[in-house]
């Protein structure tokens, strides 16, 4: 067959039989050869050479390198992946969200998700590298960062961000950047918070990695978006109650298409990055999100007319998935949300279907939207209108894109 793997051949190669022949991934330790092979993969992605990246990934797995370790090794190159014509760092955000999808998968299926990732990162252009500057020895305030953004100087912004991070710590850096992004939700369709949040989460967790690529991506993005003035929290009103948040989440999950999906993704990002925020900050972020929803009305999706019972077998589910009809698929999945085991199966079925359907070209929102939906189902499964809305909103968006 050679190493020029088609997607179908790749999936066959990483089937359970092939994996058992390779031995347990967890028993393998990193070697110099493995590190060199990973370097070859990163070089291929950075060069936007899809064929070479796919070949190298297949080689790496054939040599027994753990697919999850391969995913982790992609951190530096992923930060520079662009998604024109949009300025938003969709792919670095997708990279972090993939971490949240992995717990739904068996070890033998992680490789299929990594294959999808590698193809998506490799096929896109890359951000021109910002030359690393030395951290400043003098004190840096966040106002200095904002001023440099206003001057549209990504190199200067990167250095100031790196210095502020070093001087004030990761939590304070993340907190200030998220608050800055919160003033531009309407301008950016939520990305000034959602992309920022997931890049920060990954960067600050990955203490084994150099933060400069992520800081460069953030600096470039904030300059392109002209996000340079932190809003005054008081303008957004009093802290929202739990009931008000739920009511607005019902509004967020109402309606189809990319705009409405971003209402849900943005709330997901705020909740996942909440650990960086003070209670007052969180109230401000939540109120900013509510304003972002505008005046749209709540809707309550009903799936009663979509006759589909819970499908226990993946192959049967995938046959239904291939029909690209949102009603029956959402109705089938709805029957899984009332237990942790069911929600885990729901996530596994949809992620596997995404991987099996992959033809080499996906909208990153297929992944980030799924992350937000699974998060919401885990936290709001008892609230049937919200859970049903979210499920249908995502499946309908996905199928409209795939068709």
Question: Overview of this structure, please?
Answer:
65% of the residues lie in helices and 0% in strands. It has 403 residues and is mainly α. Among the domains are: 7-73 and 104-121, no CATH class; 142-233, no CATH class; 314-402. Helix 8 (107-122) crosses helix 20 and helix 21 runs antiparallel to helix 22. The protein is globular and about 65 Å long. The relative contact order is 0.11.
Summarize the structure.
The protein is mainly α. It is built from 22 helices and no strands. The two termini are 31 Å apart.
Q: Which structural category do the helix and sheet elements fall into?
A: mainly alpha
Give the percentage of residues in beta strands: under 5%
**Largest β-sheet summary:** none
Would you report the number of β strands? 0
Specify Rg, calculated over alpha carbons. 21 Å
The shape is: globular
Helix content range = 55-70%
* Oligomerization: single chain
Low-pLDDT ranges: 1-5, 13-31
Helix-strand string: HHHHHHHHHHHHHHHHHHHHHH
Overall mean pLDDT stands at 91
Total helical elements:
22
Topology:
Elements lengths: L6 H7 L2 H7 L9 H15 L3 H13 L4 H7 L1 H4 L11 H12 L5 H16 L19 H9 L3 H15 L1 H12 L3 H4 L2 H15 L6 H14 L16 H11 L4 H16 L6 H14 L21 H9 L3 H9 L5 H18 L7 H16 L3 H19 L1
Helix pairs in contact: 3-4, 4-8, 5-8, 7-13, 7-21, 8-20, 9-10, 10-11, 10-14, 11-13, 13-14, 13-16, 16-17, 16-21, 16-22, 19-22, 20-21, 21-22
